[in-house]
Amino acid sequence: MTPSSEARPAPRATAADRFPDQFARTRRFSLGVPRQFTASPDGERVLFVRGTSGADPVSRLWLYENGTERLLADPLGPGFAEEAPGAIPPEERARRERARETSSGVVSYATDASVRLVAFALRGTLWLVPTDGGAPRRLPTAGPAVDPRPSPDGSLIAYVSGGALRTVRADGTGDRPLAGPDGEHVTYGLSDYVSQESIGRSHGYWWSPGSDALLVARVDTAGVARRYIADPSDPGRPPREVAYPAAGTANAKVSLHLVRVSGERIDVRLPEAAGEGHPEAAWTDRAFEYVVSADWDGRGPLVGVQTRDQRSVHVLAVDAESGTTRTVHRAHDPAWVALRPGTPLRLPSGALVVPARPGGDTQGLDIGGTVTPPGLEVREVIGAADGRVYFTASEEPTEIHVWSYDTTGRGDGPVRVSGVPGVHTAAVGGPTVVLDSRTPQGQTVTVLRAGAEAGRIAVLAEEPLVAPRSLALGLGRRELRSRLYLPSWYRPQAGPLPVLLSPYAGHGMQVVLKVRAWWTAVAQWFAEQGFAVLVTDGRGTPGRGEAWEKSVHGDRLTAVLEDQIDALHAAAEARPELDTTRVAMRGWSFSGYLAAAAVLRHPEVFHAAVAGAAPADRRLYDTHWEERFLGHPDVLPENYARNSLLDEAPSLTRPLMLVHGLADDNVAVAHTLRFSAALLAAGRPHTVLPLSGAGHLVGQDRTASGLLRLELDFLRRSLGL
Fold first, then answer.
1. What is the distance between the alpha carbons of residues 114 and 111, in angstroms, rounded to a whole number?
2. In whole angstroms, what is the distance from residue 587 CA to residue 701 CA?
3. Hey, which of 334, 415, 460, 704 has its CA 20 to 30 A from 326?
4. Alpha-carbon distance 525 to 486, whole Å?
């Protein structure tokens, strides 16, 4: 090094330069964000989990009461020790992977009915903490504890260990099994893979209101095919076994049982198959293979079951004495019956809250016989409190608001609770609503009592170093909701910019919303590197009616890709900043699959792509998710062939980077390896980037930050920038 170069100051990193490191360090800006709110029935206490800052990866348990926050349990405090690698029970590790949990510490908890006693597990150790100011207590258990939950009266704690459902008294005595595994591949009290990953049912047991019995799921995976996930970077570590039911193969056998604390057990007699009213199709399977919902309220257990072909859902009232069932609601659909989170819900009167079609193309609710009005697209039922049902819904697809409906007959219809444009959800208890709001300005959590603001719970997330700024667009004849991100430094005289499409565009998720979120910050970061970034929600995404959402039935690619192209062309006509001679697409999971399809099918439009965790061979994905769209692969093989990328490998003429986490148990790395092999066999150059130790959500700091930079480098080189 010469003296002159020693004296020259190093160039100072800009905010955009440092953004990938911040993005990774904050786990996509999720750290420091309060979540998992529980409001007590009287509305006086609110529980939640959160770290101590926007860079703290350890979640603590907190209580909000009388306008102040109080720390209830600190895993790094006296008496606790932070989780050591490999110390989390495998069942709990699987639960966290399904929930895409990025933090450690207290990541979930459960309470008694009055929210006076809280149970949680750390590294398989069961802890209790009262909300009245007492210290956390460690309870001895027969083995590593998973999913501990107090009885409603707080006298007992149920938990799963070694595949058995057990109870222990709150004073730490009397630990005993209630339902033990009766086979090598049998568990009690846990949820199976597809119920957690694709259905959204994360629990496997439910307490009775009287604390004297439990409704318990028995899961038998003996007939389910096994996958073995190894870590090639550590060849001495044994592979992890996953019971994974791929499309067209056997599901886990799930049955329900009423287990009394006294030891008596009664089998729930679930119906075997749907009868009259079930829609017929090229592939029809009437068997009720899926337990999609379960609960136990003051009127007894209430269970939802769905057929293998997903075209019928029955809601069943269970007799707690005999185990017999009575169908109290049926739903059928020629494509699939959509599972609305939070339904079915039974009100104290016995009336049901279930999905309904109020007219037109709207997906609404039936609340005790009253149907929500057309045009109000219901997303989720939050719960009921003080004679009101709370739910989230949209009048405009880019906004989601909290609504309430008065079930006492005093109201005139649904009333909107949230105000400013954005995406809102809530937790409710008595007269209290904990309103969790994400807007273009950021996130706030407001505690409302009787409709008036009573306080706020702090959001400690870091501010993104790159502030998202976008133009809202409605593009093409379908008024495709889109956002265009341009560099903050851009001036028209600089000429048109290369275009980067960065959608998700898959079923069940929107990214064109009036919010500031991690994906909006990432889009702006790519814009700061010299791209015009276009993000579009097309057909198949939620919020725009049933026909829009189900337009991908039988074909998951054609309409979705057509919408991305239409949005690109319409945006380019309206905005001279877009250079359509240099267009790329990037994505992860479904959008990674879409990005790869874009350069395969439309090289005249797309000139490069980055495809992360792309499910290239749809036969490899799970039963409930994939059969919903494409049916059974043995009966409708043409659907799977039409949606597979493997046979299209010879058509690749554009630069393509394939990225995949080697520990991904959702979209197996086999998807990318098979696709790469097909490309290699066809003599098509491509790039493969394996991520050692990464699952479906890339959480390692250095990997996550490095991946953004490598994507950018690939896109720049591929587009000649």
1. 8
2. 19
3. 334
4. 10
In CATH, 470-718 is 3.40.50.300: no
Cβ atoms of 572 and 578 closer than 8 Å: yes
- How many CB atoms within 10 Å of residue 226? 10
Cβ 397 vs Cβ 510: under 8 Å? yes
Instruction: Please calculate the CA angle 427-339-519 and round it to the nearest 5 degrees.
Output: 65
What token pair was written down for 696? Answer: 């479906």
pLDDT tens, 106-148?
Answer: 999 999 999 999 999 999 999 999 999 889 999 999 999 999 9
Of the candidates 513, 518, 510, 515, the residue with the CA atom closest to the CA atom of residue 539: 510
CA distance 462 to 18: 13
Say how far apart CA 67 and CA 455 lie, in whole Å.
6
- C-alpha to C-alpha distance for 193 and 225, rounded to whole angstroms: 12
d(CA 258, CA 525): 53
Cα separation, 311 vs 252, in Å, equals 19
Closest CA to 551 of 480, 490, 485: 480
Task: Give residues with Cβ within 8 angstroms of 526, minimum separation 6.
Answer: 485, 500, 502, 533, 586, 712
CB 245 within 8 A of CB 623: yes
DSSP, collapsed to helix, strand or coil, labels residue 716 as: helix
Longest C-alpha distance within the chain, in Å? Answer: 89
- For residue 624, CA distances in Å to 250, 607, 620 come to 11, 34, 12
Tell me phi and psi for residue 157, to 5 degrees: -120, 120
Spatial distance between the Cα atoms of 310 and 334, rounded to a whole number of angstroms: 9
Per-residue pLDDT tens over the stretch 30-85: 999 999 999 999 999 999 999 999 999 999 999 999 999 999 999 998 878 655 54
**Residue 407: how many CB atoms within 10 A of its CB?**
20
Q: What is the pTM of this model?
A: 0.95
Beta strands in 91-135 (DSSP E): 104-105, 110-111, 117-122, 125-130
Q: Where are the domains of the chain?
A: 353-462, 470-718
Reduced to 3 states (helix: H, G, I; strand: E, B; else coil), residue 222 is coil
